[in-house]
């Protein structure tokens, strides 16, 4: 009763082996699950034909049409076909599902039989159709996980994912012929990637090319590269990606469909319930429930605890279901990014002034993630760096510059922690957004961070040119703390250029502004850099006094990096004053605190100074380890 297996089946060695292992138990029920178009039926039919010798009493097949337009067949209808195939006379087929199922189990009790149940929608649909024999194997395919069947009948899941580029290319070759694919290997791989490794999409693409022998693979890839028409291209007659996805989505409850359509407008690569809620205008609890429904239907994939992704073609389909909701969804997720990054920055670096004032039309999400400590906040900033950059770029493209520069600037704790980690392009996008809005407040704030990063990268002349207008911009915007920060950052690069008098004057002015506000966080920042400049100016006692004044402001204003740097400059000042033992003690403490906090740049700096006065093996080893960590992170 098995239908013909699809032509051009390729790869899936691991899944075929998993299916063989799952089928090796006693009366096994094997559950092949995966998204629409991933090749579940093809896998099962290929395995069934390859293993035909293991089932001398026959192979039964039924399409349960759980995801079709024609409606599901009645269980009694399928059982009748099975019983007739097993030799039961038509007049002896029971008229109730329970009786027919009991007769089916009885007849299969001592047989070695394969039963394939394709396109199952629910566990309840499957249970009456399970054979009774210990030597029978049941293969079920479904777009749903069918957790109920796993619980009640110990079904063994065999999840099926998309094909990798090599197998995707081989599938194309199986339909088009190896010669055509080998003639354009780069284009063939690109086609496989644009189809997202989805066998259905690859087969539709191959079908289009097969009917047009003069079309090149490269030209087809160029057409597929346009997201606006990709799904249209991947539909042919009654077969295609959109049609397959439509049949899955139409069985979802309205709340899950609403969340699904909004996920299509997410500019990032992954999401959690908070992100999904922001996109849908719901709350994280409702979003988490919707994500579970979508995952059960294989429309989203959970890649880690609370971390989900959409296949590219599924994302395009979801976006097309409700394109008008795009602007609202985008603003919702951008404001979610701002709210969450603000919470992360406040946890990572508590006690300072807010990074900026919020936009006038800012919409606070219904719930914002909590961060238990600095490590959790910094881990989130590091893990979300790519998606925050994508969100900022999407904001810039949509004309939401006020969101774009804020999302980027909020990453400042991570920027400071990993200053030489390629932040310049993203900060330049933030500066473009600020300039586009003719916003002196935004422009000054972005210039401050970008100029500091350029100075850390050794691009001093560029940093000076960028920072020189910043104090004036902040003054024009009435942003006194922004002006103080601008003066500090400008003083840093002026000192590096040898203009120490100008640097000391600017840092002194920044200290005055911080005290006028007053803002202890900015005051400590000014004192930290003033101490460094005083030390460079040959005034170690003044440097020591400035560092002590900074410490006296209280630990609530010290972030880990600032404390390390203040300890280090204090140690250097003690060394310059001839107090070698105290200097070594302070520098050792600075290095130790930097190592414990994961601040490798601070550890390297403190240990380099220590190695100038002592060649103790422990300092040599620690310095080498810190340099290696810094290099590995880079």
Outline the fold blueprint.
Elements: H1 13-22, E1 29-33, H2 40-50, E2 59-63, H3 75-85, H4 97-107, E3 114-118, H5 123-126, E4 137-142, H6 147-153, E5 156-159, H7 165-176, H8 178-183, H9 185-194, H10 199-210, H11 217-225, H12 230-233, E6 235-236, E7 239-240, H13 241-249, H14 254-263, H15 273-280, H16 284-296, E8 301-304, E9 307-309, H17 312-321, H18 326-348, H19 374-383, H20 385-397, H21 401-409, H22 412-417, H23 424-436, H24 440-456, H25 460-467, H26 470-476, H27 480-496, H28 500-516, H29 520-536, H30 540-552, H31 560-576, H32 580-597, H33 600-613, H34 617-633
Parallel strand pairs: 1-4, 1-5, 2-3, 3-4
Antiparallel strand pairs: 6-7, 8-9
Helix pairs in contact: 3-4, 7-9, 7-10, 9-11, 14-15, 14-16, 14-17, 15-16, 15-18, 18-19, 18-20, 18-21, 20-21, 20-23, 21-23, 21-24, 23-24, 24-25, 24-26, 24-27, 25-27, 26-27, 27-28, 27-29, 28-29, 29-30, 29-31, 30-31, 31-32, 31-33, 32-33, 33-34
Explain what the structure shows.
This protein is mainly α and 634 residues long. Helices cover 62% and strands 6% of the residues. It is built from 34 helices and nine strands. The strands form three sheets. The chain has a five-stranded parallel sheet with strand order 2-3-4-1-5, sandwiched between helices. Helix 20 runs parallel beside helix 23 (424-436), helix 24 (440-456) packs antiparallel against helix 25 and helix 27 packs antiparallel against helix 28 (500-516). The mean pLDDT is 91.
